[in-house]
């Protein structure tokens, strides 16, 4: 029974895997379970017969009967060997198909991530809410002070410097101090933009950090997408399927891939010796690479979730958020809401597989409690 359980441990879905993945491969698990139960019964029967003959050979004295027992024993052992070989063939088939299912699921997740990062705010949008010169209230103040200033002693900024927040603020306040506005008028005008100035000056660096770290995640996701496409190419190469993952998905060509796999396994079953072993390795190796990719994907998703948790802390750290709530840009509130949604997606929607530690060993090497 041990070889049977050893083989089974190679591809069973982990108990901790997400429901979506379990649903996708439930049919394959059922087929495997039925196959294992049938094989277990047959093996048990064969072992009982072999044990019986072995006991009889110990006590039997008739040479003719001994020869018959030996022949029967050899036939039973050959039958057991063929049964285990057929079981390994079925295991390779189901394990390979399960791998295809997982690649399909992960590719959909990667495409969802691609769409997610394509919709994040651009650097220009971040600058728009983190630069006071982009706010209508600030522009209105500048224009108002300009009309009240002493034009002989003031300097107009160039179009480039006018959009620089630090230079613009210094220029605006300098002009205000030298203007003919009285104290009450100056305080009133400052009160109109105090929340804008406070928010942009405090949050500018933080908002830029969010942008650049999101850009890093976007680049990492692009690499993940490239790697799963290369993985699919390597995964399907042994069975002589030549379409890319993108084309296979677009054309819904999964049945053709399954047919190619059936042809390969049928050829492998009829091959003998080292040639058969080589074919077995060729189809098993990509499955092991898939398991490595799953681990890599989960690391990326975990990293992305932690980044967005950090973004939430950054945005929630603005200490005057409650006092300036009505003055803050709507884009800031939407950004906070979007980050909450992103955290949920990284923790649930983008995370269909969890493999780590001993569970990875169980799938890769068949190390489990049945050994």
From TrEMBL:
Residues 1-18 form the signal peptide. Keywords: Signal. This is TerB-C domain-containing protein. It comes from Flavobacterium aurantiibacter.
């Amino acid at each position: 029974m041990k070889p049977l359980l050893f083989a089974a441990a190679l591809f069973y879905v982990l108990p901790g895997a997400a429901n979506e993945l379990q649903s996708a491969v439930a049919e394959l698990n059922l087929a495997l379970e039925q196959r294992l139960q049938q094989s277990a019964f047959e093996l048990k029967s064969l072992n009982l017969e072999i044990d019986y003959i072995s006991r009889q050979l110990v006590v039997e004295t008739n040479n003719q009967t001994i020869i018959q027992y030996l022949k029967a024993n050899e036939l039973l052992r050959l039958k057991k060997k063929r049964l285990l070989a057929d079981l390994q063939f079925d295991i390779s088939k189901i394990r390979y198909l399960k791998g295809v299912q997982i690649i399909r699921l992960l590719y959909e997740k990667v495409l969802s991530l691609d769409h997610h990062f394509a919709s994040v705010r651009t650097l220009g949008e971040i600058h728009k809410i983190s630069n006071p010169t982009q706010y209508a209230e600030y522009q209105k103040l500048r224009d108002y002070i300009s009309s009240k200033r002493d034009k002989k002693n003031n300097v107009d900024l160039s179009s480039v410097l006018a959009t620089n927040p630090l230079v613009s603020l210094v220029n605006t306040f300098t002009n205000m101090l030298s203007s003919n506005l009285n104290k009450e008028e100056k305080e009133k005008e400052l009160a109109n933009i105090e929340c804008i100035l406070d928010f942009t000056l405090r949050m500018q660096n933080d908002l830029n950090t969010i942008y650049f770290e999101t850009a890093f995640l976007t680049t990492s996701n692009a690499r993940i997408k490239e790697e799963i496409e290369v993985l699919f190419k390597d995964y399907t190469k042994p069975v002589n399927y030549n379409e890319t993952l993108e084309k296979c998905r677009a054309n819904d060509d999964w049945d053709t891939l399954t047919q190619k796999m059936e042809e390969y396994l049928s050829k492998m079953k009829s091959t003998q010796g080292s040639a058969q072993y080589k074919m077995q390795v060729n189809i098993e190796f990509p499955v092991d690479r898939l398991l490595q990719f799953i681990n890599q994907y989960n690391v990326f998703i975990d990293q992305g979730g932690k980044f967005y948790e950090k973004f939430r802390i950054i945005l929630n750290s603005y200490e005057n958020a409650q006092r300036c709530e009505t003055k803050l840009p709507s884009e800031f509130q939407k950004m906070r809401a979007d980050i909450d949604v992103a955290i949920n997606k990284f923790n649930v929607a983008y995370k269909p597989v969890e493999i780590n530690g001993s569970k990875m060993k169980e799938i890769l090497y068949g190390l489990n409690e049945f050994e």
